[in-house]
Design brief:
By secondary structure, this protein is α+β, with helices and mostly antiparallel strands. It has one domain: 3-Layer(aba) Sandwich (Rossmann fold). Helices cover 33% and strands 20% of the residues. A four-stranded antiparallel beta sheet has the order 2-1-3-4. Strands 5-6 form a two-stranded parallel ribbon. Helix 3 packs across helix 4, helix 3 runs parallel beside helix 5 and helix 4 packs across helix 5.
Length: 200
């Protein structure tokens, strides 16, 4: 069997609280292979976002290991993890982390420009077109609706063609836009992604 593109082994996350040690994530094991899609579902506060942050290398577990392709990342420093994230992971949160003074297309271009991609604008415009925002490319985030901001975040997450994709929720999108966004995801071969159904 081929090496998983994502592997988690005995992942536990604990934090200190006034009541003592609080376990947020307990002994999680999973392996995801090329082309697989999984959903992590649970009530608010159950540790989904904490687990995703650990899987993406944004946070470290208290115990356990995370492997991205053939690279074990939990023993790496932040700079090394950030480099791997930039190459392999597409990820966005419930809050979209768009830079307020940059247009939609400039926000999508940013990860490409960091890599020195000379076709950054062309690729960013194509990504925005795929999520139905071609005509909103020059708009600033404060000129976009919540659903439009989320679609900008989707475009930015995919524009670098990551090995896999982690998404927190589609709760701010209407049903038609969810379907459009998921079609965009499904047409990306080799992408593993997380989605959490349940529309707000």
């Amino acid at each position: 069997m081929k090496t998983p593109i994502l592997k988690a082994k005995n992942i536990t996350k604990e934090v200190n609280s006034p009541e003592g040690v609080l376990t947020i994530v307990s002994d999680i094991n999973l392996s995801v292979h090329q082309g697989q899609a999984i959903s992590i579902v649970g009530p608010s506060g159950s540790g989904k976002t904490s687990l995703l942050a650990i899987l993406a290398g944004l946070d470290l577990p208290s115990k356990g290991e995370v492997w991205l392709a053939d690279q074990e990342i939990t023993g790496l420093d932040e700079d090394a993890r950030a480099q791997i994230r930039g190459e392999k992971v597409g990820f966005f949160f419930q809050s979209f982390h768009l830079l307020p003074k940059l247009s939609a297309v400039d926000n999508v271009m940013l990860p490409l420009e960091i890599k020195g991609d000379k076709q950054a604008k062309k690729k960013a415009l194509k990504a925005l077109t795929r999520v139905g925002l071609k005509k909103r490319a020059s708009h600033l985030p404060n000129q976009l609706s919540g659903g439009e901001k989320q679609r900008v975040a989707i475009a930015r997450a995919f524009v670098t063609k990551p090995t896999f994709y982690l998404r927190r929720t589609t709760g701010n999108l209407d049903k038609a836009r969810v379907n459009q966004s998921e079609n965009f995801i499904f047409y990306k071969p080799g992408i593993w992604y997380h989605f959490d159904f349940g529309y707000s």
